Amino acid sequence: MKIALFIPCYIDQFYPQVGIATYQLLTKLGCQVDFPLNQTCCGQPMANSGFSELTKGCDQNFVRNFKGFDYIVAPSGSCVLHVKEHLKDDQNPSEAQKIRDNIFELTEFLIDILRVKNLQSTFPYRVGMHNSCHGQRGLHLSSMSELMDSTFSKPEQLLKQVKGLQLLKPVRPDECCGFGGTFCVFEEAVSVKMGKDRIAEHAENEVEYITAGDVSCLMHLEGILKRQNSKVKTIHIAEILNHMA
Amino acid sequence: MSSRAEILSAVSQNKPTLVPLPTIDFNELIRYDDLVAQFKFAVEKIGGEVLFFENEASLFESIRLQQGQNRVINTLQMNDAEKISLSKEHASDLESVHTAYFRGEIGVAENSAIWIDEKAMVNRVLPIICEHLVLVLDKNAIVATMHHAYQKVNVKAVGYGTFIAGPSKTADIEQSLVIGAHGPRSLKVYLIG
Amino acid sequence: MKKVKEHAEAAADFIKDGPRTDWHDDTLWFVREKRDLAAHTLPEWEQLREWASQIKNHTLSNLDEYLKNFEINAQSNGVKIHWAANAAEHNKIVHKIIQDNNIQKIVKSKSMLTEECHLNEYLIQNGISVIDTDLGERIVQLRKEPPSHIVLPAIHLKKQDVSETFHRHLQTEKGNNDPQYLTEAARQHLRNHFVESELAITGVNFAVSETGGFVVCTNEGNADMGANTAKIHIACMGIEKIIPKAEHLSVFLRLLARSATGQPITTYSSHFNKPRPNQQMHIVIVDNGRSRQLGRADFRNSLKCIRCAACFNTCPVYRRSGGHSYHTAVAGPIGSILNPNLDMKANADLPFASTLCGSCSNVCPVKIDIHEQLWKWRQVIADEGYVTTSKKVGMQGMALVFANPKLYRILGSIGRKTMKLFPFLVNNKLNPWYKQRDMPEPPKESFRDWYKKQQK
To answer: In A, residues 176-215, which contact C (CB 8 Å cutoff)?
Structure first.
């Protein structure tokens, strides 16, 4: 299978270690992974601000880069969801549709396609689980507390395979962290309050790390933690799953 | 154009393509092993009390024994003339009613609701304005869910009817539950049979 | 006229009181938890939501016929039907009934529609006062403020606040905060108003086309107390309150209270079909933008709403900003998709008062795709030019950069280097991110840089 790696813009620029961990993990698991060199962004920031009609150029660039692959994998639930729901290219509609049908967030790719059951990773720390909203409710990566549904979680299924890891869940299992895209600056007060409240819940569990499937959530929480001079660190799930002793 | 014509025209133009009504499958609905037990549990949870009577005679005896100084209205044992007179009373006259007894038609196990229509009420405001409310219900007239209740009760046959579940209450002051808001301060359900 | 604060600013004011925000957030989260417990008691919960959604979808697709049928059936029951194209007309109709009958004493139970139409203010301007009888509504009425939640109007107030208000207006003991004591005082105070009332205004939870009757749900019994005493009963409803048959009430009554407060049903679910002998019963059917919303394919689902407020209770933004920050009669997530239809300019901020987390859509008993409509409203609002120019220019800039890989890489690299060499350029008061958060550490190389090195 031909797999393309989609590394969201802010991961590429600010958290390359998440991209590196994703690449290394997929390679370890036997995948032939390509990184199309001219990728930029999925277009979500503009679209979520009401300017979806401005994303034409961005979308066309996305299709140009990612057409012709069997799967596209990204360490980001919100970017994958956005592409699945909104990617459009009037000049290449069938290519765009193929991408939408075959783009996966990392944990769902590992569980649903690669069927990973036996990771050889270790991470002997207390880790707080944060369910990033778009991955959870949009891609259905795990069951949701509002729905009367059977309980499951693809990220947790993977984390349970990591040796030494103690996974701790906050009391409110899937409350939003408050990042919300441009919300984080245009509704700064509510955004930060939401982030602080999440952090306080994880603090009750005395975690050493907080993990999530989306770097946007982690960037926001990390910003608050550092301002609080907290010892708690944030780490993307790809980095944990890729972590060796 | 009248507002009526304007509104109906706009709705007719703007409504989406017709889609069908769903079929409610009664096999999907919750079932209770013991309807009476579930009903009792629901009444108590909602702040009411359940008492059991073998037959009407023992029930009427119990009502008779509880007569005291307070004004009590027992609609179950009223004759037609008394009912007509009661139906004409105004709220200001009925404010002084301490306890009122009514016959309920159907009880709903899932939520303790009891259907009572204006014929059984005799006076529409009486079940609301009395201080303490007693609803008398045949033990065998308890159904599992609201779906079953609407099958049995013809809500359009009367001018007014209501499902009553528990005494009146409010939690509007800092979410503290207070029983006895504007309506009755207590509800007792007398199950016969 | 005082300028109405946009949500972001009003919310920032609300949050300044940290402990009070935590209390407001915890209180509403507790209501959400009660809803979860109630939903869990029914294995058929998700099926119920699906049935409710389909019944409402069907009704909207045949709404004019159902409305006409409703009118015929109500009229044959001896009820008078009025049609109001907008809020102003609704207010005039109610006012006329009051005037024609020389009414002085009016009680009103909870009706969000009358809030939307600003009925109370209109009547006051015409020298008529109305007593709101729902306890929460009476409290905010005495305080001269709007309700902050459509089911729990006084949720933003602590018992001390209520105590002070009742001490001032009802002469209760100063400093006595006991909810039991305060409720009893309200009961006594309002009882006189009920008994003397000449006209009762109620809302409508559900209007049944097949019977021409309507259902009003309360816990306090205040709607029934007023309507069953007064010689005139006016019920106000939006056109979307129609459901086809009485049997459909079973679906909605099983969902409504469980979604709203976690109770299996409200204390009273009262079916009004005919007036009492010697009583007048009126129903005012109101459009006020609803038929326009019906014509918006992306947004018509919002008309399915049964006003349970489950979306409010689950919304992490609402819980931390309070209903008043939404500056409308119906706040919260549902308000944010209804209000732009009423006045797009005034309510352009509301669809952005959200992280699009999707929790609201999951708790909605009638399966309104609230979070998806929030996203779609943002497109409409930007199209109509109600997004600030600076934001628009910023987005245009972004779009240009992301369409051009080389430009993206150059700017990314420059950005990171600048942050590293001159951190004060971003770490300052002008950067809203930096107010309470540190900026991320700029790495030496991007992922792409690392990858390219790898490939060599």
So the answer is: 176, 178-195, 197
